[in-house]
Amino acid sequence: MSKKSRILRAARTELTADARPVTKLNGPGDAIAIIPYLLGFTPSESLVVIALRGPRRRFGPCFRMDLGSGAEAVLDQADYVLALVQHHGFDPVMVFAFSARVEAADAALSAVRAKLSEAGVGILDVIRADGFRWWSATCRNPLCCDPAGTPYDIETSRVAAEAVLAGMQRAPDRESLRAQFAPLDGARIAAVAAAASKVPRGIYPVPLVEAALATPHALTVDEVAELAVSVQRVVGRDAAWSMMTRSNAARHLELWRAVMQSVPDALLPPVGGLAAFAAWLSGNGVLASHAAERVLTVDSDYPLARLVVDALRASLNPSTWDAFHAGSAASAAR
Question: Do 184 and 165 fall within a single domain?
Fold first, then answer.
């Protein structure tokens, strides 16, 4: 597998931080209902692994990837799942396959289950869900696990309702989230490119960012061009980067996401890198992976995007930025 393929594969594996369930989960049906809110979208044709924490086996981080297809891909995916599980120290886990393709889902679950079991990883349950019913590969009690499948409905689930009340959101699918970082309008992008050609390359980003944070979705073509050009040099990008804190990361995400939707690919990497980092810092690892993925399709070696992917793979808590940011500020003040 090439370097670019490895990086893109990591970017396409969405990893959440420790989950904080808003309600009590009673069995696989409730776990299936909360997963879309942990990921931020409703998974399909997906393999999801959830780590369980502590004696009460609360949900910890979870990761999702596209369901493998074909014998070789399934075995390769099982190896990759084991590598992630061991890297993060997940034990025990629950494994889910979301698909109506019975053979493909069962093959993937069987391979992952075998690989994790061989490595001594505890497995609480292995579940296939097709959007309407779920089946357990570990339970054979018809009183709790109907052989014909146990019905579930995310739309009317108590767990889903309480997740919504707690402010959690879910998109209908992964593409809906990825679209948040896709270019919006060809004419606007062309106009931004033309305007950017007239912007001085040494323009300083901080005052531009401070002004733009108030209205990130109402930026003019000239404002987008100035912001994009101001972060093309490393010194400018890092000045904008250093403005981010956990308390303002969501606003920075909205700003840089709006900018990256309006810039040509030639200006994209630093803009998208800032959007990806802001997404990670705000605690949204799924959005961070999508932003980083778009950057890496343009420049597979762009350092800030690779840094975000590495942070996601390592399941780094965004709180680690606080100490680093405070230390950097203190050093600059000396």
Answer: no
